[in-house]
Amino acid sequence: SKRYPLRASSTMEKSPTSSIRQDEVFDRTYDNCIVGSGLSGSTIAQQYAALNQTCLVIEKRSHIGGNCYDYIDDETTIRVSLYGAHLFHTNSERVWEYVHRFGEWVNYEHRVLGKVEGKYVPIPVNIDTVNALFDLNIQNEEEMNEWLAKEQVKFSDSNGNVREAQNSEEVALARVGPRLYELIFHPYTLKQWDKEPSDLGPEVLSRIPVRNNRDGRYFSDNYQALPKEGYTSIIQNMLDSPLITVVTDTDYFRVKDRIRCRRLYYTGPIDAYFNHLGWPKLEYRSLSFERAVQHNTQYFQPAAVVNHPQRRDHESGQEVDYTRIVEYKHFLNQTSDHTVYFIERSTDEGEPYYPVPNAKNKELYKRYQEMARKEEGVRFVGRLANYKYFNMDEAILNALEVVDEDTGRIEKDVNR
Ligand code: UDP
Prior knowledge:
Blueprint: H1 22-27, E1 29-35, H2 39-50, E2 55-58, E3 70-72, E4 79-81, E5 88-90, H3 93-99, E6 105-107, E7 112-116, E8 119-123, H4 127-134, H5 141-151, H6 168-193, E9 223-227, H7 231-239, E10 244-247, H8 252-255, E11 260-266, H9 270-273, E12 284-294, E13 305-307, E14 324-327, E15 339-347, E16 354-355, H10 359-374, E17 378-380, H11 383-386, H12 392-407
Helix pairs in contact: 2-12
Bound molecules: uridine-5'-diphosphate.
Residues 114, 123, 184-185, 188-189, 192, 204-205, 207-208, 307, 309 line the site of uridine-5'-diphosphate (UDP).
């Protein structure tokens, strides 16, 4: 955050290379062109710069960082994210070591509460969730296992053998049974995806575990932290090299005939790369955020993230069309006289956030993947190009491994 004002005021950020004239940028030949400056693209650029190769990073938006982009909210001076809360967690030593090269991280264990039947309960489901919702007094893991065993649905194949859950409805029923499924997972998933969980692959609801103890953390990874100065600063530092040129406000498809590079790394939506080919639409879910401020208020809600799985408010009966509310002041215990929060809704149209994992989209993606394989000198990297929901650490690890592969280097050489 040195020469980079971390504010999303009227002008947004200036690109680190804004001093270079556009025509100059396109006069040069680069070792690598990278489309997109999110975690995937920035990791690729950083890695090649460390190998002494030149990189041109082409970013469509007016800022770097992709959906990790954060900034200081002018009115409250609280650091917030433009595209929703981002919680870093990993079990990968390699990724943990890597992210520490670009700034300070503060250990932070994320906790989420769900507002269910008018009560705030821990999510993922644990002993406290069940006790609160069903007025029970479960005391230990053994009792919780017993309770869960009675709730859980077992699926068996035609030979009567237990089989794996095949869609997200089955995942939830196998983990928590029908009662918690109807209270927490079914209605939330309908709001978030506008699809029945039975029409979504198992990977969607597999993200949320069930706990037989009182662990109220959202993630159970060994490493959980937030960047002290925000994600934008981390990504800024990744891209901070004389060998890396970043152009923002630049649509790759408008300049692709003008750029010169030996290799291309594309991190945008795979269907956009091939100009959709007249095929059916590859679906993505998007999010919208409604900002609200409360003056002279310590906190609006009891946790950084409160999920609202249910369709109607327990007390008023009014419709609740949002999925969750994020109050950023809770992250790293920020201080302000005021508080700002963002009401999150899921939408069909808009910036692509989530690939929609159903049979139709997976099939369609495979056809694009075939095309991608034949595309010489181009690598498709990251969540949008792989049509796969990557957590932040997975995006970084995947990008590091792409560079491993493309440079033929082995793990012991990677500490640069
Ligand atoms: N989910 C749910 N109820 C919740 C939280 C999550 O049904 O209270 C489901 C929902 O389908 C969601 C998925 O679990 O899309 C993954 O949740 P996660 O919090 O990982 O979503 P993300 O933060 O990545 O949007």
